[in-house]
Model the fold of this input.
Amino acid sequence: MTIRETLTRWAGFVALGVRRTVSRATHTARQRIRFSGLGVAVAIALLVMVTGLSVGLATSTTVYDDDIDYWVVPDSESPESPLVATDSPQFSSVHETNDRITAIDGVESSTPVLAQVLRVGTTESDEYVLVIGIINSPALEDVSGLNTDSLTPRDPYYDDGEYNGTWTGEVVLSEGTAELLAVTTNDSVTVAGNRSFTVTAVESHSADVGNVPTALVQLSELQRVTGATTYDQADQFVVSTSSPAVRDGLEGIYPQSSVQSRGEMTASSTRNSDMALALAATALTVALVIGTLFVVTTSGLELVADRQQLAVLSAMGISVTSQIRLVGTQTLVLTGLGGVVGAVCGIGGIWLINAAAVRTVTTEPIAVVSPWFVPYGTGVGLLVGLLSLPFLVVVTRRVAGGKLR
Amino acid sequence: MAGSVASFDEASSSVVVSATDVSKRYTRGTEPGVLGRLLGRQSPPTVRAVDSASLEVRTEEIVGLAGPSGSGKSTLLHLLAGLERPTDGTVTFRGTDLASLSRRERTRHRLEHIGIVFQQFHLLDSLSARANVALPLVETGVGKRERRRRATDLLERVGLGDRLTHRPRELSGGEQQRVAIARALVTDPALVIADEPTGELDTESGRAILQEFERVAENRAVVLASHDRETLDLCDRLLRLRDGAVVDQPSRGGPRE
Done:
């Protein structure tokens, strides 16, 4: 047999397998095929939901801002990276550094960000709130979805290296925080139980940020409240610019830091989260094992039930190798389709999880939905098919060429 | 098509397949293992499905196998097709002893030289009539266009030109059997074997199938097993089997109309 004939035979059996599976799924063996595909789909749907949850957990600490194009973050992979190390790497001397960043050509605005979850309260109640310290400037519009106009620019409490300037006591609350604390503009709240702040504005979050209880304050005042004044610390810088050339200038700001765009920041946050990685890897392993066991069981039983048809193929002169090609193609088509269906169902499941979470436990969606979950689910479905193949090859070899009845 | 007895006796008529003192025994159950023998378990009984049967089938000859159920007709057909190996004796196809071929070689041999028609048609439900007919050509590496052309030609020849895309369940029993005949012929085999080809059909459909078999026998040999008198009347030669043995060859060379 020539190479061309061999290739034609391969293509013929692959096409036949695809055609046969589709025809069986839609006409001649609907229930059996749908049941087999459903098993894979359930495994893939669970995988997609757990992956969405783990990515959501990993990216939830990122401070988003519509106007900000770059983040400068400490390089957490380097042993020397924490310029100031507490429980996570932080930058030091951030006020002075912010002046240097602002001086770079093309930078429209820049601010260090110090984010802390603190108790914010009134005389009647208090709640844990994400308090974000920033240095406001006229060009800075939003941080974490909250408008910064109500904060005095240039952080007046910080005065040339000393924390003895004018204490503003200004705080901008998100609507969610104001509702929780039952306060409004000009009311007083305490942050971390000691200092009194005045609510200068209650702002609604922008739509893509979610509804986390958040408060914006002057950076130096938050540093004072949390004891981060010793080294003038902050977690990251957020820089707004319309010039890509700014990136080069930002990369020289700190020796062990990295400059990331929004997409890179999200990806990096996901990568750096061991918990999320562990969850996603566990989900993948479980989906592969469950999916493979299901396919091996259902397809194996189907092959045994179908032995008469395989015997007929053998009698007609169809070789066992070709029968294996046919069975393999049918299995891969089935698991691939199961993967697509599972991925779509998984995305639907994430929507349900988010809806339920927002209604009952959290104030923002906890799982992430991505269109990449569809090719991911399909790929895992195909992998399930590939992992099932060795067993199905063995079964086909044993069953093929059986006695005709 | 051979028209008379004389034509089979001519030296030019070549033998396609022959069986010489062929026997086939089956064991009922499994042989006892070492422990089974120690415990006194006897070897299971054997059943002789075919007993020292001999025949030759030549090109353009239709040979019928008759006999009651269990007489060994199907087993003898399977031996001639190389589906099974004889326990004793030899089956040769154009001079090649089929027992000397490996399982893979025998499968290839069936693909290239033998067409089989089953009583229950055994078409693949999920494929159209044309795809069923073209199936053996996939194995031979024939391209898609050529497969479709040959399958379409054959289906038109058996009167199913308007049923090309119908699935087996959308066809009557007679139409399904005609699809099966077209499938058996698609590789242009030298020998066609049919096991009760009209067994599942009504009289009228059965007659139509028999007419197909008369056409099939052009340039090839046909062996068919049947209980049906009308089917057996079609044959040039008839072998009666009882308990696996050939007991009678009553109509050797009977002319076909």
Remarks:
- Residues 144-157 of chain B form the longest helix (14 residues).
- Confidence is low (pLDDT under 50) at residues 1-12, 252-257 of chain B.
- The longest strand of chain B covers residues 15-27.
- Chain B has one domain: 5-248.
